[in-house]
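Hey, does this match?
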Amino acid sequence: MHYEADSLYHVYNRGNNGQQLFFRPEHYHYFLRLVRQYLAPQANLLAYCLMPNHFHLLLQPTAAGTLPTPGSASTTTQPLSRGIARLLSTYGQGLNRELGRQGSVFQPKTKGKLLDGPFCAAGYPAVCFHYLHQNPVRAGLAGTLADWPYSSYRDYAGLRSGTLCRRELGLLLLDLPTEPVAFAQESNQLIDPDRVRTR
């Protein structure tokens, strides 16, 4: 995947063969610490949702995150691409060590979908933002969006003051309501999954 600076991307992957990725709260927290370590220097994280067997990230790559290694034409040399690879590798190795197993934890290819390109409908980044937060409710893992602790919804809704996401930038770029009640109302309008490109 080739990333362009200042564009918006929906980045996601799932467990290899559909296997579970997160078994305990500590696993979710460890993954988010790795996101901060490996991705924050290369991209603005606008939103996230971690599910038991997959994850979603909404990213805006920075100029520093998209510069290729001098003399290389490969997109895997972009710092953001390398950061994503290191994030998944480090998490996978740690999980395998803890569980006493071997092999790939994630599917081989992490997907990255451009959200604000010339072929995207106006407002599509906000649709994707709400869709990823709605995953736990749609999957029956939470009764409300606020019930799921492993997404950025609580930060945007004013229920938690996390520092991982660039909330103010997300509100601006995605044209989201800044008032918590209005944000919650907009967020709870369920998005038809067919409106979100995940293939």
